[in-house]
Design goal:
Length: 141
């Protein structure tokens, strides 16, 4: 098995996700120091929750984050945790950001993008499974 895999009781796993989300109304508010503060906040959240940030980029109007996480955590829970805690902490650190979003009461838009990431491609998995099926038939003939 690859070095990137983790071990837990009775399983080996690699659970990695690429998330993208943006501020409400996609306003370009993640700049002028807010971007750097947000990176530090996200690293802190991930440390507390056992997520490993593999890559992180904060653009003025959206965020890309690639994380490795425990196999027991749903991607929707990860997105909710990262978005909710980071919004609270950013509003504390930047009261002007809180005033800017006072009417709608939230920093982040409701939605997000998530995609699974692995070391191997879909085609590789399909070929492996098909080969297992063919190998199993050889033994029963």
């Amino acid at each position: 098995m690859s070095k990137g895999y983790h071990s837990a009781s009775h399983c080996k796993y690699l659970t990695q996700y690429h998330f993208i989300w943006c501020p409400k109304f996609r306003f370009p508010v993640l700049k002028d120091g807010v971007d750097d503060a947000l990176k530090q906040i996200l690293y802190g959240i991930c440390d507390r929750y056992g997520y490993i940030i593999k890559a992180l980029e904060v653009m003025p109007d959206h965020i890309h984050i690639f994380i490795d996480c425990p196999h027991t955590v749903a991607p929707s829970d990860i997105a909710r945790t990262l978005k909710s805690i980071s919004a609270v902490e950013l509003f504390k650190a930047y009261p002007e950001l809180k005033r800017f979003y006072a009417r709608c009461g939230r920093l982040w838009s409701n939605g997000y993008f998530v995609s699974t990431i692995g070391h191997i491609s879909e085609d590789t998995v399909r070929r492996y499974i098909e080969e297992q099926t063919h190998e199993g038939r050889k033994g029963t003939s």
